[in-house]
Amino acid sequence: MAKKKTIRTIPQARTPMPEQAPRARARNFGEVACGYTLENALVEAERCLQCPDQPCVRGCPVGIDIPSFIAKIAERNHRGAYDVITDTNLLPAVCGRVCPQESQCEGVCTVGDTLEPVAIGRLERFVGDMAIREGWINLPYVEPTGFRVGIVGSGPAGMACAADMAKAGCEVVVYEALHEPGGVLKYGIPDFRLPNEVIDVEIDKLRRLGVRFECNTLVGRLFTIEQMIAEMGFDAVFIGTGAGYPSFMGIPGESLNGVLSANELLTRCNLMRARDFPSFDTPLMPGRRVVVIGAGNTAMDALRVSLRLGAEQAICVYRRSRAEAPARAEEIHHAGEEGVAFRWLTSPVEVLGDAQKRVRGLRCQAMELGEPDASGRRRPVPVPGSEFEIECDSVVYAIGTNANPIVGQTSKLRLDRRGYIETDDDLATSILGVYAGGDIVTGAATVIEAMGAGRRAARSMKAYLGLRDSDVVFAESAPYEARRFGFPPGERGHARLRLA
Amino acid sequence: MSPDSGESFEIVAREDYSDVTFMLDIRHPAMARAAKAGQFVIVMEHAQGERIPLTLADFDPARGTITLVIQAVGKTTREMQRNCLAGTTLHAVVGPMGIPSHVGSAGKVLCVGGGLGVAPVFPQARAHARNGATVIGVLGFRNRDAMFWEDRFRGVCDELIVCTDDGSAGLKGLVTRGMEQALAAHPDIDECIAIGPPVMMKACAEVTRPRRIRTVVSLNPVMVDGTGMCGGCRVKIGEGVKFACVDGPDFDAHEVDFDDLMARLARFRPAEGEALRKWEESCRLGAAQPASGERY
Ligand SMILES: Cc1cc2nc3c(=O)[nH]c(=O)nc-3n(C[C@H](O)[C@H](O)[C@H](O)COP(=O)(O)OP(=O)(O)OC[C@H]3O[C@@H](n4cnc5c(N)ncnc54)[C@H](O)[C@@H]3O)c2cc1C
Ligand code: SF4
Ligand code: FES
Questions:
Q1: pLDDT tens digits along A309-354
Q2: Which phi and psi angles does A232 have, rounded to 5°?
Q3: CA nearest to A274, candidates A310, A314, A312, A315
Q4: Distance (Å, rounded) from C-alpha B15 to C-alpha B33?
Q5: What gap in Å lies between CA A186 and CA A422, rounded to an integer?
């Protein structure tokens, strides 16, 4: 196989992603990026140089063996590629769509030094989608250990932890406050980026691993974390309740009608299907001219959802410049194509209202970039005398979130200064047997980091319960099926796993 | 408590108090054990429904039930009035939500409930009574026919004043009249709890403000998740902004900006009106099912 590939012999251009045309897609909720065809994937897989030093693997938060799965695609061994990815990543179809690849694997890809980097994310999604279509699932034979593990929150962190603990032979129950599992993947990220069916398939796989989902369960209030350990018979607990509690700026006019958080807009639209009102009962009343404050993924989602709900104009207001915008590059690009207007270096100072207490505009001021701040980004400073108004009837805040307070309010868990759960390097909290990870520990981050945290916590929980640590998965000497599921078969005192 | 455990949220009893007010007892043993006065639940009647917050009117750990008293005013509650019969199930019930009411060492407490606030103030009255406080109840109804739970309140209140808008029972007038009467007879009231429509709570706050009596109200803004995630339920309290679902629902009445609350409650009124009209039309047409035809 392609041993003599060089930067000069590989296909030079990155294979474009087939997409819905911008004009059409800006009015529907169908997926924007349609996914690689088999031909697309084969061409793109040829672009991988199979670098011996594998910079991409180090760039991946969970260390997917990227060259090896790409090689499998090139060999047309798609099932093999799926097996390689799912060694480390539970959700290829999800991560292929939503990871910020440009700042992870693709950002350090060798090909990217000269040409455009290998489209690792698109290839990963190709494999994930094929697995869904073909119904592939790696269901191990799991010998029950008798341990019971409770997981709080069904976002990517909770899902990843649940999968690992179930594979280790534990009885796993996932508690979710909302009426459907999936966390941000379900209520936040819209269908045109990540269809709900993709998440449902992944949840269903977890069910087949034996994981039980208990929705409509608000942990902390229905029962506490302490009760889970002391009274409900859980040997270990993982908390992955995510960041919630959207921030507002505290400028005048924020309680006017027409001001809302991106989380509210997205939850009404995605989870509650307000876009199908009145067939579904949840109302939304989308604006005709919508201003979204912020330039992260959440902001891009809010802008693009607004267009799809019928807004004539969707305007992004961000106080720094495009270079500092935290959203995935592709999302900003897609938003622009769909007709979103960007007002970079602009900061709101007041939401303006009419006599009915409805939004009629947003007063802003221009900013310029000054000295770098603590985050290393140049600090925006207001330009004196630069105030101006943007006419609009809806203002959506997407400027970040604070820690969800419920678990903190109801347990003795140690929190940090900002209200996030404090953990050590093993993701252990201040209560014995209780671990935490994802946005509730780090603050708003990414899907893959939350998933990585769920898996890291699972490793610690297995150690705590005296189960064999799954690092063995990666040991070269382990037999193949043990590599995949974590345990050399037959090892004493540990879960024994083999393919069913 | 979800499809996975095979449990459902069964309505075990229903009682109608008037043409708009009805009570549901729902089987939920874990919540019946965990619930405390002042907390609320979020209910979804069916899979296409909206999530609506309802304050817990009662909970019985022995029977394993929670009690909700609902006023059929909008589309969802009207639909619930029609569909939620004993033996049927609800799509989702989650709770108990919110910070439980603070039941402190107050010696004499005034509990005021008006309209849809009558039932939610009951657990608070009972909690204070169990705590050894002297409890004076003031209940407000439209008229004699709309009255309910007088007996339950008599069971926990040392004194009960009923007010009706038309004077068909008790005092004629609003609950504020009842409050004035109670405050005149008991100048030593330490604390007041008022639950009802925002206008009523606002008026109650003005009755106690000059007397500097600590007054707590339970706020009912529009909610979606009830977990602090959407900020739809934010309310202005003093100089700050709070999320009623996780920072409340109880707040100091003298700090609450009621005008802001009322304006924000009207946020979806046009859409709500549209939904209700469509629904009524589908009922008038004799359709057994709502317009979409794809429910249930
Ligand atoms: C609109 C939006 C777009 C995004 N886009 C991207 C993207 O493109 N790429 C990317 O990598 N990241 C993106 N992110 C960030 C990413 O989604 C999060 O970092 C990730 O989902 C965090 O996962 P988590 O498991 O920690 O928490 P969450 O996904 O937030 O899940 C937490 C779950 O816990 C539940 N819960 C909370 N409290 C309780 C309780 N007391 N009891 C029971 N359950 C509870 C919640 O209801 C929720 O379902 C986006 C986020 C948003 C909001
Ligand atoms: S860095 Fe790029 S070219 Fe090298 S192995 Fe990884 S994906 Fe292939
Ligand atoms: S209802 Fe969403 S934050 Fe309170």
A1: 888 899 999 998 888 888 888 889 989 888 899 999 999 999 998 8
A2: -95, 0
A3: A310
A4: 23
A5: 26
Distance from C-alpha of A408 to C-alpha of A245, rounded to nearest angstrom:
13
Domains and their CATH numbers in chain A? 22-134 (1.10.1060.10), 148-244+403-469 (3.50.50.60), 247-401 (3.50.50.60)
Contact A240 CB / ligand 1 (< 6 Å): yes
CA distances from A197 to A132, A185, A190 (A): 10, 11, 12
Question: Alpha-carbon distance A450 to A422, whole Å?
Answer: 15
Distance CA A446, CA A452 (A): 10
Query: What 3-state class would DSSP assign to A409?
Result: helix
The CA–CA distances, whole Å, from B60 to A361, B2, B21, B153 equal 50, 21, 21, 16
Probe residue for ligand 2, chosen from A48, A70, A104 as the CB with the greatest number of ligand atoms within 8 Å: A48
For the Cβ of B171 lying below 6 angstroms from any atom of ligand 3, the answer is: no
pTM of the model as a whole: 0.85
Give me the interface pTM, i.e. the ipTM: 0.85
> Rounded to the nearest whole angstrom, what is the distance from the C-alpha of residue A89 to the centroid of ligand 2?
18
Burial of B220 (0-12, 13-18, 19+ CB in 10 A): buried
Residue type, A480: Y
Identify whether the C-beta of residue A159 lies closer than 8 Å to the C-beta of residue A90: yes
A positions 322-351 inside 8 Å of B (CB) = none
Contacts of B291 in chain A (CB under 8 A): 278-279
Residue range A131-165, pLDDT digits in tens? 888 888 776 667 788 899 999 999 999 998 998 89
Distance of residue B138 Cα from the nearest chain A Cα, in angstroms: 30
Three-state DSSP state, B230 = coil
List pLDDT tens digits, range B65-104: 999 998 888 778 888 888 888 888 888 899 899 999 888 7
Do the Cβ atoms of B204 and B213 come closer than 8 Å? no
- Write down all domains in chain B, each with its CATH number in brackets: 9-97 (2.40.30.10), 108-266 (3.40.50.80)
Nearest alpha-carbon partner for A392 in A342, A352, A357: A352
**SS3 of B74, please?**
coil
